[in-house]
Design a protein that fits this description.
Length: about 90
């Protein structure tokens, strides 16, 4: 495997790692039996997460689909297909 060109993460990547760690910590707290975080820590973590990640309900997408595809088929293949169809009739 070749060596990495960048030895340090950029700020955007560092922020993503921090948010991922916060998400993991809040999830462990919510699903675990013992209390890992205080209520103020949970509120602060959720506030940071909401700041960085968009709310799923707020995401909308408008997409138009245009499925007009064309394929160039060689004349020899076209003729072979037509011959096969004619032979089956």
């Amino acid at each position: 495997m070749p060596a990495r060109k960048k030895l340090k993460h950029d700020e955007k990547t560092k922020q993503k790692i921090k948010i991922s760690q916060l998400l993991n910590r809040v999830q462990e707290h919510a699903l675990g039996d013992e209390e890992l975080m205080t209520s103020s820590q949970v509120q602060a973590a959720l506030a940071l997460i909401k700041k960085e990640l968009p709310d799923r309900q707020a995401i909308t997408a408008e997409v138009e689909h245009d499925h007009n595809h064309s394929v160039n088929v060689p004349d020899e293949l076209k003729q072979a297909i037509l011959d096969k169809i004619n032979n089956e009739l």
